[in-house]
Amino acid sequence: MELTSLSVTDLQARLRSKAVSPVEVLRALEERIGEVDPKIQGYLSRDFDAALAQAKVADVSLPLGGVPVAIKDVINVEGEYCTCASKILKGYRAPYDATVIRKLRAAGAIPFGRTNMDEFAMGSSTENSSAHPTFNPWDQTRIPGGSSGGSAAVVAADEAFAALGSDTGGSIRQPAALCGCVGLKPSYGRVSRFGLVAFASSLDQIGPFSKTVRDAGLLLNALAGADLMDSTSLNEPAPDYTSLLGRDLKGVKLGMPKEYFVGGTDPQVDKAIRDAIRQCEALGAEIVEVSLPHTSHAVGVYYIIATAEASANLARFDGVRYGHRAADPANLLDHYGRTREEGFGPEVKRRIILGTYVLSSGYYDAFYLRAQKVRTLIRRDFTNAFEQVDAIICPTSPEPAFKIGDRSDDPLRMYLADIFTIAANLAGICGISLPCGFADVEGRPLPIGLQLLGKPFDEANLLKIAHAYEQSTDWRLRRPVI
Ligand code: GLN
C-alpha cells in the first residue's frame, strides 16, 4: 500500500515504529499532491517549508504526532493565507492560530495546506470558489460537493491523511458523501469556533474529514473541549471518542425517519441506504420508524437564519481592516460599495441581500422571528425521536455527485442538495457521513454516503455505530483511479 493511502491510525503505527519519519511522510505527501492535484485542484495554497520545519521536530509519541492535516481555507493558521476562497480576502494572512489549530499542534499534528471551498462556505459544490473549482476524484467532470469540497477531495484522493472543514448546513457531511470519505459534524458547542471565519454563528461547527471512522474519533479527541475564547463551547471535559469502538450493534436502536424515505431520492442511493440499514440490523441493531414532522420546513428556515446571520457577519469586510480595497474612492460610501461589489461573488451577494431583507424592519417578524420559532419545532422533533432511538439513519445526499455546471444557474436546486443535512445544524446535534456503496453512473462508480445523526454531545456513540457498520463492509478500501 502506498504511504499516502494510509489511515491516520496506520500512519501513526509506522511513525512510532520508526518505519518512516515525519519528514519522509511530508515529502511523500507533497509528491502525491504534485502528481494528482493538477487534476483535482483541491488545494488553494501550501507552505511546504513551514510544514517541513515542524516535521523535523515532530514528537511521534503525541496522539497525532507527525501527522499532516489539511485545513479548509476558512480556518486561521498563523502566517498562512486565509482567503475563504473570496477575492475580498485575496492575499490576507492570518495573524493568529484558531483554537482548533492550537489544539492540533498540541496533539503533534502538522497543519499542511489550505483547501478549496465555496466562497465563505456558501454552496454545495465548491463551484463558488473565486479561485477555481475542485474536481471529484472519482470523476473529474463532476463536483466534489461543498462547501468543504477541497478537504473532502484531498482526503479521497490520498493527497491528505485527514483534513478539517466546517459545517453550517452540511458542508462536511455532503462532500464526504460525494467523495467517498468520512466526515463528522460535531454537536454545536463541542468544538471551539474561535478562529473560524464566521458564516452563520448559531450553526457553524468545525469537524474532521478522514479515511476511517476511527480516525475521525482520533481527530475529535484533539479538537473537542471548552475554550474561553468561544463562549458557546461546552464547558465540560470531552470523553475519549475511540473508547466505545467495537464490532457489533447489540442493544442499539436506530431510527428511520419516515419523512426522509418518501421518494425523490436517487434509486441507487435509496437502495444503498436500505442495504446499509439491513446490514446494521444484521449487526444486532433494532430498526424503528420515527417521525420528524417539521422536516419539510428545514431548508426554508435555514435559508432565512443562515443568510440573516451571514449578512451581519460579512459586514466586517468593508475594505477598512481586511483584504481587498477599491481604488480611488470618491467618498466613504463609494469606498464601501465598490469594495464589496468587487470583492464578493454572486452567491455571497445573494445571501447578503436575502439576509438583510429578512432582518429589515417590517419583515423581521414575518421571516426571521417566524423561522426561529420553526427552528424550535425542528429541534423538538429530534428531541422526541431521540427518546425512542439512539441515533437516526438516513442518506447524506439525495443523489451522487452531479456534473460541473449542472446547477450553477439554479440556486434553488443547489440549495436542495442539503435537504438531509441542514436539520442537524438547526437542532445542534451531531452527524457523520461514511461510505456505504457506489452508484453506477455512465459506467463509473460514484460514492454514496450513509448519514447517522446522534444526540447532542453523543459523538462517542455515533462513532461506535458508524465504526461497527464500516468494519463490516469494505467500502473504505476502494480508491479512485485518478
Ligand atoms: N450548502 C449549504 C449552504 O450553501 C451549507 C453550507 C455549509 O454548511 N457551510 O449554505
Describe the protein's architecture and organization:
This protein has 482 residues and is an alpha/beta fold. Helices cover 37% and strands 14% of the residues. It has a domain at 3-251: Amidase signature (AS) domain (Amidase signature (AS) enzymes), CATH 3.90.1300.10. It has helices spanning 8-16, 22-40, 48-56, 99-106, 149-156, 173-179, 213-223, 267-282, 298-313, 332-343, 346-359, 365-388, 411-415, 422-427, 459-471, and strands at 43-45, 68-72, 110-115, 162-167, 182-185, 205-210, 253-257, 286-290, 391-395, 430-441, 444-454. An eleven-stranded mixed β-sheet has the order 1-3-2-4-6-5-10-11-9-7-8, sandwiched between helices. Strand 7 (253-257), helix 8 and strand 8 form a beta-alpha-beta unit. The longest helix is centred in the last third of the chain and has 24 residues, at 365-388. The chain is globular. Residues 121-124, 147, 167-171, 199, 306, 418 line the site of glutamine (GLN).
Protein traits:
globular; single chain; eleven-stranded mixed β-sheet; 14% strand; Amidase signature (AS) enzymes; alpha/beta; 37% helix; binds glutamine; 482 residues
